Amino acid sequence: MAITVSLVALFGLVLYFLLRSGSLGPGSAFTAAAFGFFLASTGAAKPINQLTASLIETVSNL
Q1: Which of 22, 32, 43, 50 is deepest in the core (most CB within 10 A)?
Q2: Per-residue pLDDT reduced to its tens digit, 3-23
Q3: 3-state SS string over the chain?
Q4: How far is CA 48 from the centre of its chain?
């Protein structure tokens, strides 16, 4: 659970800075956030979470 919260905060910060820099418009940011929200409710959520967990574990073992 802690990993999920950290990644949500990280991606939220990335979206915030992209909005501030002007390289991402408000409509695009909303679309990206909505896509992530709806993707989390599909069957793709479990494989994405497993892939993310394995990548984090691999990086921490380096």
Answers
A1: 32
A2: 666 677 777 888 888 888 888
A3: CHHHHHHHHHHHHHHHHHHHHCCCCHHHHHHHHHHHHHHCCCCCHHHHHHHHHHHHHHHHHC
A4: 10
Tokens of 15: 């979206």
- Amino acid sitting at position 10: L
32 and 15 Cβ atoms separated by less than 8 Å: yes
- Number of structural domains, the chain? 1
**pLDDT tens, residue by residue, 25-47:** 888 888 788 778 777 778 878 88
What is the spatial distance between Cα 55 and Cα 14, in angstroms, rounded to a whole number? 19
